[in-house]
UniProtKB/TrEMBL annotation:
CDD domains: TM_PBP2 (cd06261). It is found in: Cell membrane. It is a multi-pass membrane protein. GO terms for biological process: transmembrane transport. The lineage of its organism: Bacteria, Bacillati, Actinomycetota, Actinomycetes, Micrococcales. It comes from the Bacteria. This is N,N'-diacetylchitobiose transport system permease protein. InterPro entries: MetI-like, MetI-like_sf, UgpAE/MalFG_permease. GO terms for cellular component: plasma membrane. Its main location: membrane. Keywords: Cell membrane, Membrane, Transmembrane, Transmembrane helix, Transport. Belongs to the binding-protein-dependent transport system permease family. Residues 83-300 form the ABC transmembrane type-1 domain. The chain crosses the membrane at residues 21-46, 79-105, 117-141, 172-197, 218-242, 283-301.
Amino acid sequence: MAITLDRPRTGARAPKRRSWAPLWLLSPAGIVILAVTVAPIVYLVFTSFTDYDQRSLFTGAYDAVGLAQYTSLLGDPAFWASLVRTILFTAAMVVGSIAIGTGVSHLLTRLGTVMRYVVTIVLIFAWGMPNVASSIVWKWLFQPGYGVVNWLLTQTHLFGDMTNTAWSNSTFLSYFSIWMLIVWQAVPFIALTLYAAETQIPIDLKEAARLDGASEWRVYRTIVVTFLRPTLLLVTILSVIWDFNVFNQIWLVSQGGPDSSTTTLGVYSFITAFVSFDVGKGAAISVVTTLLLVILTSFYVRNLLRSGEDL
């Protein structure tokens, strides 16, 4: 009895079996993301279309108001005032952070090895300090009566006796102290990022320009700035997003005062939702703020794609 065996066909491919292992491995992280990110966003958007207020906290009762919430919000002068404050304050913080950060990054290229390490470590410590802790210390520095900054300014005799000056009671002084705090926190990241980019510039280009008689300022403007332009653009867009969303520093230093003069969109949303207990309106302010940040983020993503970076 002859036995014949079928030989596998040459070139025939076995059907691929779909593996579910990657999906099972990613499912815990996906559940966590859904629980702590997606679900709160969905609930925030839902709440923004309701009149959820202090009564709802105890009874659970609320009514759907739909787009009337946003119509009322867009007709609120306080909302537009806080939006204008946010835009102007963000512009001031971004300009200050980028200007000082660019200067510090160029300074790092001129320092010796030991001093460069010292400055880098100091920048990393400043960057790593929690903004809540630094804001509380900052407020203590500017306290009337025993604040260190008030004492130092008094000793210079340039501004008279500032011992009992309350910075939080003046609109200009409040903005200035908060501006200094946020710029101080932002400069380390910007300086170290730009320094890393500046060290990648070919030294031959600078030497050739100097041999042609170019001044140091012309070398920096025509060569260094040209190479740093993509990094500067990305750092600027990130700074705009971060500074537009600042809340902790403003709330801990001035709580939006005096007379709501430092109330930005984040502070206005918090006061509306958790001080006035108009949770629905506060949610609507947060949704509008998020949409503005999404528009800003789209510029960042578009620039990443144009520069060839992966998301």
